[in-house]
């Protein structure tokens, strides 16, 4: 059975949520040089464009904390590339 890939809408800039002890409320992505060798030359505080293909592995309604009732999802990265044209 073939899977269909959904194309994401155009780039959406995210806004910081309220500050917490865990950071600024923005989602994070952790990568190492094994998966994206380009990061060896990148600088902290700079912004970079990535093309990321993901597979949804979980989807549900949060039932605890400040975001109770919000829909959330977990994704596994299945493909990634650094955009050569933008920084």
Question: Would you give an account of this structure?
Answer:
The chain has 87 residues and is mainly beta. It has a domain at 37-82. The protein contains no helices and 2 strands. The protein has strands at 50-61, 71-82. A two-stranded antiparallel ribbon has the order 1-2.
Helix content: under 10%
Overall pLDDT confidence = 85
Task: Describe the strand arrangement of the main beta sheet, using strand numbers.
Answer: 1-2
Poorly predicted residue ranges: none
Shape: globular
Tell me the radius of gyration: 16 Å
Strand fraction: 25-35%
Helix-strand category:
mainly beta
Order of helices and strands: EE
Largest sheet: 2 strands, antiparallel
Beta strands, count = 2
How widely separated are the two ends? 38 Å
Number of helices: 0
Task: Please give a quick description of this structure.
The protein has strands spanning 50-61, 71-82. By secondary structure, it is mainly beta.
Which labels suit this protein?
87 residues, mainly beta, 28% strand
Sequence-ordered SSE layout with sheet pairings:
Layout (H helix, E strand, L loop, with lengths): L49 E12 L9 E12 L5
Antiparallel strand pairs: 1-2
């Amino acid at each position: 059975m073939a899977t269909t890939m959904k194309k994401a809408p155009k780039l959406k800039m995210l806004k910081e949520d309220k500050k917490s002890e865990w950071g600024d409320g923005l989602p994070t992505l952790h990568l190492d040089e094994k998966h994206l060798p380009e990061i060896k030359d990148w600088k902290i505080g700079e912004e970079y464009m990535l093309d990321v293909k993901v597979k949804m592995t979980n989807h549900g309604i949060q039932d605890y904390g400040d975001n109770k009732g919000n829909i959330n999802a977990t994704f596994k990265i299945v493909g990634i590339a650094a955009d050569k044209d933008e920084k």
